[in-house]
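My main concern about presentation is that the manuscript never shows what a single data entry looks like. The format is easy to grasp once an entry is in front of the reader. For illustration, here is how one protein appears when written out as sequence plus structure tokens:
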Amino acid sequence: MNPPPGRRAGRARATERRPASRIEPLNPRLAGVPDVTRAPAIEVRDLVKEYGDLRALDGLDLRVEAGEFFGLLGPNGAGKTTFINILVGLASKTSGEARVFGYDVEADYRQVRDAVGLSPQEFNVDRFFPVREVLAHKAGYHGVPEDEALERADEALRTVGIYDKRNVRFDWLSGGMKRRLLLARAIVTDPDLLILDEPTAGVDVQLRRELWDIINRMNEAGTTILLTTHYIEEAERLCDRVAIVDHGRRVEEATPEALQGRGTDTLYLQLRDPPATVPAIDLDAVEDAWLEDGRLVVRAREGGRTAPRLLRELDYAGHEVVDLDIVRTSLEDVFVELTEGGPADRTRPEATTS
């Protein structure tokens, strides 16, 4: 039976390895354990990174379990790329702790480097070699023999769908093919943790979905995925859990569904006799209500559960509801509320407030 794309048969998982140096685990339950069979894929505590007077990371705490598909969301400048750079050794931390599969990112940098594959935002590929050689060189940096490195390069190119371009230089590829190549380079070393920094930026919808499929299959085969993205739909569709970061700190962390449940839904009610003023509503879940274009608009938590109680209360007050539409909160709405301090798109309109 052939291994799924991105995972070679017979490869020992990172959770079967022993770290080169042991330091006290961040998770107290792991204290005294001589191996990392239960270590998370990523665990950081009170991580700080300063560039002069700028604090890019301000005490970040984060834990990603092995095998998870984890999303990292945040506005530009939130610290996402700085965090990734520390994990892969492109930047040194100012203070705090960071580990990958139990390895300290600085003390055990070789083990971390071999465990991680990175597909960065920016194109940073050697432009003077055919892409097959670029991938083979990458595998060689990780100690893979030349013959096997070429085989892995071919396998990675087939996985991302550009094997027919194996002898083409990077500059001659289209934008979408360049994105595919970055993913191929990230998986050619058969990583246990795949970090994708805006992997579908600037690509069309069809290619985005093709890349989703490739990444999903790798996760199903056991690879841990850390995804940063500005496409909220990606996080909703792909991630087991997401963390929202802002100003270098974790603002919130939960499943996409749980985060959506913390937001507010908007209920649009058409009454048979539109009232001149907002009816009295005495429900704990209701946060606001106003009249808009002849309809009663109610913002409430858990709109689906609140709707029957709201209908009963309006009925008791003599208001007959003839139409009801519920607009569920999205992960994007929650993201905006958490990073900008309040709802952006469903703000109570002053002109129609009664």
Notes: Confidence is low (pLDDT under 50) at residues 1-37, 342-347, 350-354.
